[in-house]
Write a structure and sequence with these properties.
By secondary structure, the protein is α+β, with helices and mostly antiparallel strands. The protein has one domain: TATA-Binding Protein, CATH 3.30.310. It contains 3 helices and 7 strands; from the N terminus they run βααββββαββ. The chain has helices at residues 20-41, 45-49, 103-120; strands spanning 3-9, 52-59, 62-69, 77-84, 91-97, 123-125, 131-133. It has a 7-stranded antiparallel β-sheet, with helices on one face. A hairpin with a 7-residue loop joins strand 3 and strand 4. Helix 1 (20-41) packs across helix 3 (103-120). The model has no long low-confidence stretch (mean pLDDT 93). This is DUF1885 family protein. It holds the Pfam family DUF1885. It comes from Laceyella putida.
Length: 138
């Protein structure tokens, strides 16, 4: 697949800058929320909602999160990084679907993108090129 989605922190977002550590905390919060839902339902919803392990990696001096799939038939891996646009100075989160990504990875990546964009009130640029605005537009 080898596609990317972006969550841009524009004017009106909950914050204007983001670090990889903050993204990792947002994913941990997502896992906590899904584990609480699982307790209410009586099954391990967290494992189904977040079927990845998170590893902090670095390549060429650029840090990123590698989400490795726990269920190799359904999920391979996703790559998550943060950066800043040179022209506008906007900070953004990038989620990359590598070539080996499955349709399960795509579905989970879309779900994670929507969660992050909603929490940050950002501008979500999906893998298919469409844009969802989670911030109040003036």
């Amino acid at each position: 697949m080898n596609k990317s989605a972006y969550i841009k922190l524009v004017n009106g977002s909950a914050q204007t800058e983001i670090t990889l550590a903050e993204v990792k905390k947002l994913f941990e919060h997502y896992q906590h929320m899904t584990s609480l839902t699982g307790q209410q339902l009586g099954w391990d919803y967290k494992a189904a909602a977040f079927p990845y392990t998170m590893e902090e990696k670095e390549q060429g001096g650029i840090p990123y999160l590698l989400l490795n799939g726990n269920q190799t038939q359904l999920y391979h891996y996703l790559i998550v990084g943060v950066s800043q646009e040179e022209e506008t100075g906007l900070h953004y989160i990038q989620i990359v679907l590598p070539e080996q990504a499955t349709h399960g990875d795509l579905a989970k990546a879309n779900e994670f993108c929507k969660y992050l964009a909603k929490r940050l009130k950002g501008e979500l640029h999906l893998f298919n090129g469409r844009i969802i605005y989670y911030n109040p537009r003036k």
